[in-house]
């Protein structure tokens, strides 16, 4: 009896000393890649229109370039953000320029494409310096983010722990984004 009691006591003591790896930090606590390229599909659904197509987004610390094409690959819109502001180019129209993407897309497209927030949201991170509310899934990943009046639902993550499918919704506008490939640069 003494041997089994001593063995049990030893097992309890050793178990008390065992360490468990801490859970990974929340996604928004991780440092994002400064440079990345996302390629995928985008759908924009509003009361007035439904559009879908391809998106190629190249992000740099000081510049964003989003190219949206039709399902057949024809250029629909190109948005460039740099130190000078934001420029929108569309076929058969003169380029438009504004200080920020929200204003520019509202005026030119009839809806706001929240480029500044999306830069962070596609990485499963809230935009820094702004109030947000976050809900997590059982794995600790962001399941839903609410920020700046937008609700971002993370529907699927890829093997690399980056969001693969998400929806961005606000007042009669839904943007669906499917990331087919991510590339850190």
Explain the layout of strands and helices:
Layout (H helix, E strand, L loop, with lengths): L1 H16 L18 E11 L3 E11 L2 E7 L5 E8 L2 E5 L6 E3 L2 H9 L5 H7 L10 E5 L5 E6 L2 E8 L5 E8 L2 E12 L1
Antiparallel strand pairs: 1-2, 1-11, 2-3, 3-4, 4-5, 5-6, 7-8, 8-9, 9-10, 10-11
What does this 3D model show about the protein?
With 185 residues, the chain is an alpha+beta fold. It has one domain (35-184): Clam (outer membrane lipoprotein receptor (LolB), chain A), CATH 2.50.20.10. The protein has helices at 2-17, 101-109, 115-121, and strands at residues 36-46, 50-60, 63-69, 75-82, 85-89, 96-98, 132-136, 142-147, 150-157, 163-170, 173-184. The chain has an 11-stranded antiparallel β-sheet, covered by helices on one side. The protein is globular, with a radius of gyration of 22 Å. 22% of the residues are buried.
């Amino acid at each position: 009896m003494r041997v089994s009691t001593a063995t049990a006591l030893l097992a309890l003591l050793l178990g008390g000393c065992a360490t468990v790896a801490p859970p990974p930090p929340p996604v928004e606590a991780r440092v994002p890649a400064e440079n990345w390229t996302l390629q995928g599909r985008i759908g924009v659904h509003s009361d007035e229109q439904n559009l879908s197509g391809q998106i190629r987004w190249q992000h740099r610390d000081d510049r964003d370039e989003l190219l949206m094409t039709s399902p057949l690959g024809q250029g629909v819109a190109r948005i460039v953000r740099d130190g000078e502001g934001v420029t929108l180019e569309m076929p058969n129209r003169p380029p438009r320029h504004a200080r920020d993407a929200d204003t520019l897309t509202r005026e030119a497209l009839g809806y706001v494409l929240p480029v500044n927030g999306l830069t962070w949201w596609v990485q499963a991170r809230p935009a820094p310096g702004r109030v947000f509310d976050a809900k997590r899934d059982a794995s600790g990943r962001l399941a839903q983010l609410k920020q700046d009046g937008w609700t971002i639902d993370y529907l699927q993550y890829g093997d690399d722990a980056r969001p693969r499918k998400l929806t961005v919704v606000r007042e009669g506008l839904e943007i669906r984004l499917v990331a087919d490939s991510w590339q850190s640069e």
